[in-house]
User: Fold these one by one.
Assistant:
Number 1:
Amino acid sequence: MNDFTYRNSELYAEHVPVRKIVEKAGTPVYIYSHETLLRHYHAFREAFDGYPHIICFALKANSNTALLKVLAKEGCGADVVSGGEFFFAQESGIPPEKIVYAGVGKTEAEIEYALRSRILMFNVESSDELATIDRIAGKLKVKAPIALRVNPDISASTHPYISTGLKKHKFGIPIQDALEYYNLANKLRNVRVVGIHKHIGSQITKVTPFVDALKKVLALADDLKSQGIEIKYLDIGGGLGISYTDEEIPPHPRDLAKAIFPLIKKYDFTLIMEPGRAIVGNAGILVTKVLYLKKNSKKEFVIVDAGMNDLIRPSLYDAYHHIQHVKKNNRRLTPVDIVGPICESGDFLARGRTINHPQHEDLLAVMSAGAYGFSMSSNYNGRTRAAEVLVKGREFFVIRERENYKDLLSGIKIPAFLK
Ligand code: LLP
């Protein structure tokens, strides 16, 4: 099912022509479908129905608080990795008892903030961090609920930059050392061991790595139990992939649930999962306008008004995003490089892409851009960040204004000697 479809050769977001949104909000613009967002969230909820669970949306994929409110209203929790994301979650009405907090570099201020707000649990990534959490909890006279993030040494078979579960990665605690760490944690006065966490990578397109990693984690839970350490929350992380092209059909949340239920049914866990991309990736597109065409003896370039500062995935991971005309046409099919205005050779949205020959002022839609799109955007080259729009049925709402030049100066202070 898709909420970005053509009617009379025009691309629609739900029941709104994309062209109409652009007339109001300009380009580049991120457009999200309310319906898709809900459908993807419900796919997880229904798949895991029948086993106690909390779906903690990974805010790093997209943290626009309007979108988070849509999810919060449905009872969704949050996986955060900074005080800022914790704040976004709270602002969106996600209750702290549904927020988990991972990340290798939590600061003392961030830990204190989360503890004061009564977070569900910290997913702890090192013994140093554990000691810090214990100390801060002691100061606040509370017991900090923690899980250890274990690194199961399983390959997620995904892009090396978004794979996290191998020994060479900075994440988590090696699974073979986990017992020792748990025993250490269990002895701390201001820490309460409540869970196990693992996350092996992102854009995973098979269930096998999830199953293999889970088996290792369950063996650890058994060992912990035999030593008197009871695990309540089993956090399996995020990472389920999405279709960026028609050839790649990753597992549905239902397939994931089917594969893991037999393994966990004898346990009394509350299952936590942290999907990001699978919920929001295909709920959003980035629409950009063609500024110029340029040809040399080797190549033709289509220069558009969205750059790597708006969507860095192609530049950073050589990621593929399908790009299509907002208004379909029958012009000749031509291989082109679709590039942005940034002063970097690595600034491209697509290279060697065959598309109906674009023309000046055409609108192009970069598909599957809802996850790690806006959230990874920047002001590089003095560029204002894009607007964001949420479509619901026949209506659309600007959920983030395009930045203006004044915004670019926000926080800048000129020392007196320069005034
Ligand atoms: N939980 C933890 C602890 C994570 O580190 C991540 C993603 C997630 C959950 C959510 O993973 P997802 O379900 O979205 O795959 N910027 C990259 C992806 C980086 C993912 C980092 N961690 C990209 O654009 O592909």
Number 2:
Amino acid sequence: MRIDIVSVFPDYFRVLNLGLLGKAQKRGIVSIATYDLRDWTHDIHHSVDDTPVGGGAGMVMKPEIWAECLDEVLGDNEDANASTADASGSTVDVPILIFPNPSAPLFTQETATELSCSSRRLVFGCGRYEGIDARVPEYYRTVGRPLTADHGENAPRQPIEVREYSIGDYVLNGGEVAACAMIEAITRLLPGFMGNPDSIVKESYTSEPLLEYPQYTRPTTWRGLAVPEILMSGDHGRVDRFRRDQSLAKTAVIRPDLLGQLECAKLSKQDRKTLIALGWTVNGQHPRKA
Ligand code: 6GU
């Protein structure tokens, strides 16, 4: 997967060179490039923002700077000819353009899973201040990216998929941290990224909306605190059941909204018993607090 990131703080993304993601880049599973939006400014102050039309607080990022930059990044399409000529009609090489935006749909595990296989190329546009002029996403969604080296207004263009996502109900100073979170969630799902792909299968949110059970390692007693006995029994059936019950109990307390998303029809007899004991009703489509 190729990921391009546009920001006024390209240094922010140095964190992506650490740990597993850094290794994945060295191994060629993902390649990440950053661009400084200010390189596309023309004035001596390198200004990227202006006051909002209609008044109000804060500053809005100027559409023409963003478009000159994105035309160049999105127009660098070693992919375009291959994918449009692809007999199968595959669009997997056409970039998906993503704008982190606190006033957008929530980015979830499902979004990460879908994006990890929808395109081999993602471009992130990270805004600061009060955000980017709203015509920028609209333009690439409807008019599109340039298909030739000519980036002029009359150049042939191809509309592309444009997404906007928030990572949660709180406000950050800009899209950089949100982009890092999304990139980490997406890339760790790429084939070959994980040494042991099993570690993805069982974690929170992956197959159903449940929080993960608590994990322990040795020493089995530490500072007077013991690991639950069952985990040392060697009885895999009982260990699995214990962990499943811990997941259900933990989710009931911390995220009851998630329990309400479970499908009753998919719950085992033992799951139902546990939920009933936790004070939930499981006879409808979804569990409800009794
Ligand atoms: Cl995507 N951007 C900003 N600025 N704040 C956020 C966010 C995004 N998601 C949650 N808060």
Number 3:
Amino acid sequence: MVVRKILLYDNPILRKKCKPVNAVSNEVKKLINDMANTMYANNGVGLAANQIGELLKVIVVDISEERNELLVFINPKITKKEGSQLGVEACLSVPKFEGEVDRSQKIWVKAKNIFFEDLEMETDGYLAVALQHEIDHLSGILYTDKVPKGKLKATEDHKSPKDI
Ligand code: NI
């Protein structure tokens, strides 16, 4: 099992735009494995490929308590948004901080799955927040960009999965 190093907020790679994946090669499969291992090892609920230094449009998410509902999205794109929700977010690339972000309540996502088949998902609530956070990463956007000035708060180490 390979757990990769997570890049931190001041690393310029996190500000670059990720490139679309053309096929699920062995390298991409390995990347997805490494991402899932790294997310779970760090008790996170999501991870984008550029957080471990790979500029590809791949995200993994698992918001389940039991940590057994891995979702993988390749080339994810939000095609429709509805409503808004205000929630506290944290990020594995910005340790020991959290802040409130205004996100869409409901989103429609198009992507490819691990077999490179079309995947469509309509979701709301916290999963919608996690997906918006991760998809932002792929465009070089951190949640801290969306926290109103002066509202980013220092926290203790998180005890429950929360970092996305
Ligand atoms: Ni994040």
Number 4:
Amino acid sequence: MRNILVTGGAGFIGSNFVRMILEEQKDCFVVNLDKLTYAGNLENLKKYKEHSNHHFVKGDICDGKLVKKLIDEFNVDAIVNFAAESHVDRSIEEPKVFIDTNVAGTLILLEIARDKELERFVQVSTDEVYGSLGPEGVFTETTPLSPNSPYSASKAAADHFVAAFGHTWGIRYNITRCSNNYGQYQFPEKMIPLMINNALNNKDLPVYGDGLYVRDWLYVYDHCTAVWKILTEATPGEIYNIGGCNEKTNLEVVGIILERLGKPDSLIKHVKDRPGHDRRYAIDATKIINELSWEPSVTFEEGIIETIDWYLNNNDWLESVVSGDYQKYYESMYKDR
Ligand code: NAD
Ligand code: TYD
């Protein structure tokens, strides 16, 4: 039995990761530590709340006492750290909490992983730590870090701490740097679910600037299989880029959503751009493909249709997350755009 502490396991990617383990790895026990911020939602794991291989704890990764207690109580072998403040626009409005969770919280986990001599510490990072690309080129694992947003700066700082703990104390770590994820249970502050939700409600789709910004989209399940392979097969100290070679402009993605939902292009509204908006991300994932034989299971064209249909078929989930505070968030973020 492998006992894994998954942090942020009630968020978008973390909950997909926990579900994948519970479905596919019967000899694995998951301790799921999540603060349940606005982005964390136990409904993401509704079917698995009482699963015998799953123990959920509401708590903060900054609470070292609690983390130590969980590691001892459940004989934890490895930590996979998904917990984070994850939205670029929020980091521009309010950067401080990004330092608290993404940097200070990671540091606390690292100190505990070091002291408890855990088998592995996997830091789930992002391609955004590399900064922005022009029309050509791709990020490799040796691309220098050059983060542009408070979010990516906090993730890059955490990556440096992880590597420094490996260098100084020999902790067995890996860092994953994935491109933009899409799929079921993504909170509708991120572009794809926000556009789906607005289109379903016949509301304007707020496309930042010219809409020609490029993201390299990966289906969330494929990110999860990559993290699992890294956790179980990678050599400690290695960093892996994860991506699906699916570069699309934001306008292309919005076009696919409108077409699938049978809504008119007239819903597209170009709005004031995001300050410091990174123009293009693109991942070279050769290393994980060659070394760990990982490959994505779906194309973007398949995954995006599945995703749109999931939101259509899970209107209750969508309705519940866009009630209350989300309305205030949307109002404050978009009213002057
Ligand atoms: P999310 O915002 O959907 O989920 C984050 C989760 O972390 C939430 O459940 C939240 O409650 C929890 N959390 C926040 N602060 C916490 C704290 N102090 N203690 C415990 N739990 C806390 O984010 P996501 O999109 O699922 O991203 C997960 C990870 O993957 C993040 O580290 C992010 O940087 C990284 N990542 C995301 C993407 C993407 O496209 N979404 C791409 C690459 C990497
Ligand atoms: P987002 O989902 O916030 O991810 P990230 O900024 O981490 O890449 O945004 C994806 C792209 O969509 C990015 O270029 C910003 C753009 N975008 C919009 O045009 N309108 C929106 O309302 C949002 C949230 C994002």
